[in-house]
Design the sequence.
């Protein structure tokens, strides 16, 4: 497994664990408004989803204009979605990432992205997958804090736990 594929797999695994944990809790916790970084857990999950969707478009080298048009539509598509609907959207997006990463064998080949405010950046697929995973990790930390704020524990999402689970799963096969 290439580094980019494994890192994305960790990101997907973490998101799946968060959804599993959220489904164990009273439904209202998902949409309860609280004073925190985000107004609700549902807002954080939508933010992670939209950011993941945006970066896949960047990685596929869509233009800034195409990405912004897509993002507007994607935002509308997440409005008032249930947790289960958003989970399905995450799964579909993860499948798109996985197909792209399998087809793109050279994750370290440089290419340039352009942003009207930040300018040009020479980067590669691996660096952008690293960004996606780091961004998700940061906001899953927000989710853990928000759950604790509502009196319930989160779920362990450490990378080493992912590695142990993957090792255990591969020894079963």
Sequence:
């Amino acid at each position: 497994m290439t580094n980019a594929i494994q890192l994305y797999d960790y990101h997907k695994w973490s998101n799946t664990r968060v959804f599993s944990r959220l489904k164990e809790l009273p439904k209202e916790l998902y949409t309860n408004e609280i004073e925190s970084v985000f107004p609700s857990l549902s807002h954080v999950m939508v933010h992670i989803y939209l950011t993941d969707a945006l970066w896949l478009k960047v990685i596929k080298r869509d233009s800034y204009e195409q990405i912004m048009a897509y993002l507007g539509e994607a935002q509308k598509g997440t409005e008032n979605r249930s947790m289960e609907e958003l989970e399905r959207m995450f799964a579909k997006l993860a499948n798109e990432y996985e197909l792209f990463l399998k087809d793109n064998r050279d994750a370290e080949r440089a290419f340039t992205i352009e942003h009207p405010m930040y300018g040009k950046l020479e980067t590669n697929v691996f660096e952008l997958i690293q960004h996606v995973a780091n961004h998700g990790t940061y906001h899953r930390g927000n989710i853990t804090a928000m759950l604790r704020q509502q009196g319930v524990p989160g779920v362990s999402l450490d990378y080493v736990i992912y590695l142990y689970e993957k090792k255990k799963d591969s020894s079963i096969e």
Summary: Strands lie at 111-115, 119-123.
